[in-house]
Amino acid sequence: MMNEFKQLALAIGIALILVLAVVAWKSFPAKDLYVSDQELEVVKFEWAQPQRDKSIAGGSLIINEKYYEKGLAVHANSVVNVPVPAGYTHFIAEVGVDDAMKDDGPSSVQFQVLGDGVVLYESPVLRANMPAYRVLVNVEWISQLSLVVKDGGDGTNSDHADWAGARFTRR
Fold this sequence. Notes:
Blueprint: H1 2-27, E1 32-34, E2 41-44, E3 51-52, E4 61-63, E5 66-68, E6 71-75, E7 78-83, E8 90-97, E9 108-115, E10 118-122, E11 126-127, E12 133-138, E13 144-151, E14 160-169
Antiparallel strand pairs: 1-14, 2-7, 3-6, 4-5, 6-14, 7-13, 8-12, 8-14, 9-10, 9-11, 9-13
């Protein structure tokens, strides 16, 4: 009888641990939350609407021959607002001119990340065939990011810009 009681207590204990593990796992969101999976407010765009997880021309997101499954593609000049999800500490992306433009025209863009209206990041002017620039911004005290792409000073012809792998993460 005592042996059966121990087995029952052990089974109940294991079941309770499994239930608590599932509850804890569901209570914490995934480590990364991609911008392309969130609600976005498109404040400004030229030439074409921003695209989720594909280039502005509809193909794959590619910067300097590197492919990205997730991201946001825009055309200069654009502004997209993204709310910062609670509990996330950093915004990360790789930015650059999409490879669809590597053989076409001037293609020059500049990226900015604004947090609650304050510039947190600004890239140099990027051109076709340049490697992506890494963006890492602390967003712990920010409620909204504005993802801004400006032309590089020579007009907006061929200014296809990718926010590749753009996401919020916990550090």
